[in-house]
């Protein structure tokens, strides 16, 4: 049976997921969409052969919808996910699950009350081949214990809606989850440094670049550069320095160019290109999970742990001190 999926928010990410569900993921089709831009969304619904719901809550409640994808703007995620849980619907929510950890706690509480996992969070880096292979290698122990991580999250440019807090909440949240998963450890402290020297390509509401420092329970230290107007492409790096060696991501590449005494490869233009296979894999896993009535991807608890950490980063950025990270006890549903 083909699952009928409803997508809420059909901007860049929403449309990307619609395309992948309809054309690359097996076993599901997008049959309904909702978005606050009625005219644009009505036309798009027609184009893809889906029903347009002006009221997103009606879409969530509809009997003919088996699963919900939430790709609307960050502050709206919590409400839609809670509504889906209320109706016992499976829901895939783009990151962040909620901007505040308290919002994630509301979701965790609603889900644990049902004693069933209904939520998967869009932390797709766990399905990127580079991260997967790095984790496999680290888990063998051949390189010894991880000691330090040097990471970068660079975007070519961002639009004028993107402001200083988003560097943490919207961007670094990916590393926060991926590194916690990679090291299998939680974070104990966070600090954000806003360098005095900024790029000329930023705007008044955005401090760019920013430097984030995290420390794990066992004492692994991480530095993460978030630089969202780097001008040269979408550049994700993660280098793990271990006791007996070092391991790092490379940008996926299929060719290199040699010309005029230079030898170079391409840098991806954006997240869609860089992580295309990881997005395909996470949504296939979600669809398969619905069919087997068992969701195994990143959980509401992972969403909560990410928001606790990004909230600590924001507190540090706003107050200039290092923040100790404290979190609730993990409910048995997520053990
Ligand atoms: P976007 O292009 O601005 O699209 C969001 C869409 O949702 C817009 O059409 C927006 O309308 C609409 N919307 C806003 N509030 C809504 C509401 N209450 N109900 C229904 N629709 C609403 O943003 P995007 O880049 O696609 O990002 C969407 C989400 O995906 C964000 O949460 C973002 O963090 C996430 N994302 C994840 C990744 C990843 O790598 N996993 C990458 C990119 C984005 P307006 O434009 O009128 O506000």
From TrEMBL:
Reactions catalysed: 1D-chiro-inositol + NAD(+) = scyllo-inosine + NADH + H(+); myo-inositol + NAD(+) = scyllo-inosose + NADH + H(+)
Coiled coil (UniProt feature): none
Signal sequence range: none
InterPro entries per record: Gfo-Idh-MocA_inositol_DH, Gfo/Idh/MocA-like_OxRdtase_C, Gfo/Idh/MocA-like_OxRdtase_N, MI/DCI_dehydrogenase, NAD(P)-bd_dom_sf
Pathway this chain belongs to: Polyol metabolism; myo-inositol degradation into acetyl-CoA; acetyl-CoA from myo-inositol: step 1/7
EC number: 1.1.1.18, 1.1.1.369
Alphabetical keyword list: NAD, Oxidoreductase
All copies of domain Gfo/Idh/MocA-like oxidoreductase C-terminal, residue ranges: 135-325
Domain Gfo/Idh/MocA-like oxidoreductase N-terminal: 3-123
TM stretches of this protein: none
GO biological process: inositol catabolic process
Cited Pfam families: GFO_IDH_MocA, GFO_IDH_MocA_C
Record GO terms (molecular function): inositol 2-dehydrogenase (NAD+) activity; nucleotide binding
Alphabetized SUPFAM superfamilies for the sequence: Glyceraldehyde-3-phosphate dehydrogenase-like, C-terminal domain (SSF55347), NAD(P)-binding Rossmann-fold domains (SSF51735)
Assembly description: Homotetramer.
Family, as annotated: Belongs to the Gfo/Idh/MocA family.
Purpose of the protein: Involved in the oxidation of myo-inositol (MI) and D-chiro-inositol (DCI) to 2-keto-myo-inositol (2KMI or 2-inosose) and 1-keto-D-chiro-inositol (1KDCI), respectively.
Protein name: Inositol 2-dehydrogenase/D-chiro-inositol 3-dehydrogenase
Protein species of origin: Staphylococcus gallinarum
Gene: iolG
